[in-house]
Design goal:
Elements (H helix, E strand, L loop, with lengths): L12 H33 L9 H24 L5 H27 L38 H7 L6 H9 L2 H27 L5 H29 L1
Helix pairs in contact: 1-7, 2-3, 2-6, 5-6, 6-7
């Protein structure tokens, strides 16, 4: 799961030890996910496929966009720093979120639905929750029909702006590391918000299994990134 070209830095054993614990937890979560997905496929086969305006389809489309930006930021920072912990973290984020994005792309194909959303970005977040309460949107912005990157960044929780990405591309060393961690912390918290929101609105086994895996993995990475950021801010 770690990048083969990244070596452990002997001068920072505490950070490496913490990350090994995070990796072990993610591996355990991946095993649970694999078992859950296998059962999910069997359960999903017995139920009707989601419609193109469903919560499940909206989540799949919007979370792909969200994940794809995380992959982009991770690949950028790997070119902007030689720090082994940041490079290893970025590698894990890029590979795991690219794989999950591919899963969601495959769902839409299997359901016979277009990849392009028919309505507004994050519109599914306004759907009623399973307990019957009305959808209230979310604290990061309101659903929008805008197609620009700026409009998507406003609507989706935790998304970095074009200006943020440009700053990351132009940074290097510790400055790049701090900016990456700051942006990715917000991004992960937004991803957890989105996963929690679909869990409040869906019982589809494929969707809920992946959403729980996202909450589990990204919550662990949030804790780790907070410790890395604290080291660089002291």
């Amino acid at each position: 799961m770690t990048d083969p070209d990244v070596e452990t830095e002997s001068g920072r054993p505490s950070g490496a030890s913490r990350w090994r614990l995070v990796v072990a937890g993610v591996i355990a979560g991946a095993l649970v996910l694999a078992v859950g997905l296998a059962g999910g496929w069997m359960l999903a086969a017995r139920s009707a496929d989601p419609s193109t305006t469903s919560v499940e389809a909206g989540f799949a489309r919007d979370m792909q966009v969200h994940h794809d930006q995380a992959v982009e930021m991770a690949l950028i920072v790997r070119d902007r720093t030689d720090d082994p912990e940041i490079r290893s973290l970025a590698y894990d984020i890029a590979t795991s979120q690219a794989q999950q994005s591919g899963q969601m792309y495959a769902w839409l194909n299997d359901w016979g639905l277009p990849q392009a959303r028919p309505g507004a970005t994050m519109e599914w977040m306004s759907a009623p929750t399973l307990d019957g309460s009305a959808g209230q949107g979310h604290e990061h912005g309101s659903p929008t029909t805008g197609s620009s990157d700026a409009a998507v960044a406003v609507a989706m929780p935790g998304m970095a702006s074009d200006a943020d990405l440009e700053r990351l591309r132009n940074a290097s060393g510790t400055d790049a590391e701090v900016l990456f961690l700051t942006l990715m912390l917000a991004h992960h918290r937004g991803g957890v918000d989105m996963a929690d929101a679909v869990l409040d609105r869906s019982t589809h086994p494929l969707v809920t299994t992946l959403a729980r895996a996202i909450v589990f993995a990204q919550s662990g990475e949030i804790d780790y990134m907070e410790s890395l950021l604290a080291q660089r801010s002291s």
